[in-house]
Target: Endodeoxyribonuclease RusA
Amino acid sequence: MDTATADTEATTYVVALPAGMKLLNANDRVHWRTRARITKALREAAAKSARDAHIPPMEQIRIQAVLHPHDKRRRDPHNWYPSYKAAIDGIVDAGVIPDDDGKHLISIEVVLGAPVRHTQIALRITPFGVES
Model:
């Protein structure tokens, strides 16, 4: 079975952080203590969401990081990378993958999702099949 077929047949798991959580934007200039507090909250929320979803441990994954804004204005979803990074660290804490290095986290795709009432980010996690 080729990799493309394996990826389309794989189960996708979703780690959605609570809507309305304070997020980190690469353009923000916040005090280091505030940034650390927000990072910790995002990381813990992602770990809890992954555990609650009963996501099994995997050796390699692909992630689609989705920003669901609160309105339809233009925005660059890549600017929320600090929030995605904290959430990815949370799924590592939950045991979904051993580490978020290049061996285990094969790729990250950042996309803009549909607007929701309160801004939210979600990670769509897909196992990456290793050819034997």
Observations:
- The chain has one domain: 3-127.
- The two ends are 10 Å apart (CA to CA).
- The CA atoms of residues 75 and 112 lie 8 Å apart.
- The mean pLDDT is 90.
